[in-house]
């Protein structure tokens, strides 16, 4: 498996997704820090499929999502830099490698940033529920999350099939 190592410049969409993901994620962490003294000792620890709180936990559990988010961002950032190590169909060759690499890298980029946005939304909403400003994560959350995380993979698979 000797694939070419290509240096492909980042696209405007990749920059845009990175900005969106980081702004929402960092904004949620800032909201956590600013709200910390007002947050009660018990906060939502888990939500059911309807977006209702089904477990309460310590307010220190609010740090779990930012920690996972930073780890996810770091790892996916590394994988974005090395698209030649991703898994591709056997038909990849010198002439189509750039198209495969770019599609794969964009899929990782979108997925990474959608996850960061959703982690930020969950963190903000958990703080809001703990403070009594909201009651649930929202019935819309799970369907929107599933569509937002599955749709990019479907679009990428369609693009992969069109690469000659």
Automatic annotation (TrEMBL):
Residues 24-69 form the DUF1648 domain. InterPro entries: DUF1648. The keyword Membrane applies. Keywords: Membrane, Transmembrane, Transmembrane helix. Pfam families: DUF1648. The chain crosses the membrane at residues 20-39, 59-79, 114-131, 137-158. The keyword Magnesium does not apply. This is DUF1648 domain-containing protein.
């Amino acid at each position: 498996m000797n694939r070419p190592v290509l240096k492909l410049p980042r696209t405007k969409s990749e920059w845009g997704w990175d900005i969106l993901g980081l702004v929402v994620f960092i904004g949620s962490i800032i909201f956590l820090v600013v709200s910390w003294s007002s947050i009660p000792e018990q906060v939502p620890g888990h939500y059911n499929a309807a977006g209702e709180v089904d477990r309460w936990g310590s307010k220190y559990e609010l740090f779990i999502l930012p920690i996972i988010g930073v780890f996810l961002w770091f790892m996916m950032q590394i994988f974005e830099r090395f698209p030649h190590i991703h898994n591709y169909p056997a038909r990849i060759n010198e002439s189509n490698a750039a198209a495969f690499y770019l599609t794969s890298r964009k899929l990782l980029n979108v997925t990474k940033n959608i996850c960061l946005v959703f982690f930020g939304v969950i963190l903000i909403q958990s703080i809001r529920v703990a403070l009594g400003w909201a009651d649930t994560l929202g019935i819309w959350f799970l369907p929107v999350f599933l569509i937002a995380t599955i749709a990019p993979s479907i679009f990428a698979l369609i693009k992969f099939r069109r690469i000659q």
